[in-house]
């Protein structure tokens, strides 16, 4: 018997709002033909997610070319009750080469870890999906 | 000025132990040639991560073939202090077709969300990496 269940999908605007309500997410990309994932910090501006990549050269070498498709995930899930939400964005990641703009974002987005590599990467959200979990009891009571 | 910094890498055994200390992680795979990520629950047995995929057919259709390389990430990071750890495993994911064994794991791994799709997927950990963050002050005091 499941105690909790999925309650439909989040709309695009609510998903973006939830994404903007937290600062930590996970950047998913391809590195040496293998799936790779790194925790990073982000801010959301409109439909663009801006992250600071201090996790090493793996991300920036992948995005340094014309731009690559990545996924970005953030969630806020209570480990005890398993209630919460998860938002997944798929979009094109590009290295921010405008140093003035990059400096502005560095002032707003704290790096997840300190380090010497410190690039600013923008992800234009193309596909946005999100789920929210509520107690099955709450759903049954509807 | 960074308040926190990276304190080296976690060894393979400590990384697996930390991974086994939490139940929620994120499965990273390729779906329709795009990077995809889904939150799932897991247990760790030796160097194998076992997950229940109730998040939809995307994962199981990808692993239903001979096995695909996926990444798996779990972390425990304090959003306020940004201290904690992150472990990333890369390995081959296979659908568990032995229904007796699958039923055994279903009894141990709770699904993250309720649903009709309920496959058990094993990931044999090939590459294991992990990081742990401690306060820079603690490191400076060494």
Q: How would you sum up this structure, described in words?
A:
The structure is a homodimer of 142-residue chains. Chain A has 142 residues and is α+β, with helices and mostly antiparallel strands. Chain A contains 4 helices and 7 strands. Chain A has helices spanning 12-20, 57-63, 99-108, 136-140, and strands at residues 4-9, 24-31, 34-45, 48-53, 68-77, 84-95, 119-135. In chain A, strands 2-3-4-7-6-5 form a 6-stranded antiparallel beta barrel. The mean pLDDT of chain A is 80. Chain A binds chain B through residues 2, 4-6, 22-24, 26, 28-30, 34-39, 69-71, 73, 75, 77, 79, 82, 86, 88, 90, 110-115, 131, 133, 136, and chain B through 2, 4-6, 22-24, 26, 28-30, 34-39, 69-71, 73, 75, 77, 79, 82, 86, 88, 90, 110-115, 131, 133, 136.
Our measurement of the CA-to-CA distance between the termini of chain A, rounded to an integer number of angstroms, reads 19 Å
**Rg of chain A (CA only):** 17 Å
Order of strands in the sheet with most strands of chain A: 2-3-4-7-6-5
Order of helices and strands of chain A: EHEEEHEEHEH
